[in-house]
Write a structure and sequence with these properties.
The protein is an alpha/beta fold. The chain has a single domain, classed as Rossmann fold (3-Layer(aba) Sandwich), CATH 3.40.50. 33% of the residues lie in helices and 30% in strands. It has six helices and 14 strands. The strands form four sheets. A seven-stranded mixed β-sheet has the order 1-11-9-7-4-5-6, sandwiched between helices. Strands 8-10-12 form a three-stranded parallel β-sheet. The protein is globular and about 60 Å long.
Length: 209
């Protein structure tokens, strides 16, 4: 995969526009995030390795493609990552699931870890970390640091929106980790929010603000 992939499919962009609107309800925001995560999942899994399996159709036997290797791992960067996670699990229900709990210190904008739980044998699996926003990149880099320490070697990062600053931060720290996003927005404001963005994804998803 290339280091940065922007998914410009019309359905993705249309749903993203609806999510950006400030008057979109919490329920609609959650539903749109679930729908868009399915579409993004197609792109992030595009190059998964496949092998042939001998099966029997109602008409004959054939060698048919199946995904090769151990089941992949989805890792939600809490809390907002759960919105993407739920949708992707509809597409890949057999995936293993992990969680990285990080919150951003509003003064320093640096990540603070409070939880980490992932499946075993990450070194043998494709690992997809999901978080709607790649803003400063600090939390994303910290999450990937933890996943690599846990053994992950085949890592991808999936987000809804990214800032140029966040992309640069990730590229500097983890040049081997592809980033898949629906949009690269203009910049970060003084509070570290993506502009034009869509606000705080977690707050909009859970109705906490």
């Amino acid at each position: 995969m290339t280091h940065l992939t922007v998914v410009d499919h019309p359905l993705v962009q249309h749903k993203l526009t609806l999510m950006r609107r400030k008057d979109t309800s919490t329920a609609s925001f959650r539903q749109l995030l679930r729908e868009i995560s399915l579409l993004l999942a197609y792109e992030v899994t595009r190059d998964l390795p496949v092998t042939a399996s001998r099966i029997e159709t109602p008409l004959c036997e054939m060698d048919a493609p199946v995904i090769e290797g151990k089941k992949l791992v989805l890792v939600s960067i809490l809390r907002a990552g759960n919105g993407l996670l739920d949708g992707i699990l509809e597409l890949i229900p057999a995936a293993r699931v992990g969680f990285v709990g990080l919150y951003r210190d509003e003064e320093t904008l640096e990540p603070v870890q409070y939880y980490f739980k992932v499946p075993k044998q990450l070194s043998d699996r494709t690992v997809i970390a999901v978080d709607p926003m790649l803003a400063t990149g600090n939390s994303s880099v910290a999450a990937v640091d933890l996943l690599k320490q846990a053994g992950a070697t085949d890592l991808r990062f999936l987000c809804l929106l990214a800032s140029p600053e966040g992309i640069a931060r990730m590229q500097e720290a983890h040049p081997d980790v592809p980033i898949i996003t629906a949009s690269v927005d203009s910049h970060l404001n003084e509070k570290g929010y993506i502009v034009p963005g869509l606000g705080d994804a977690g707050d909009r998803m859970f109705g906490t603000k």
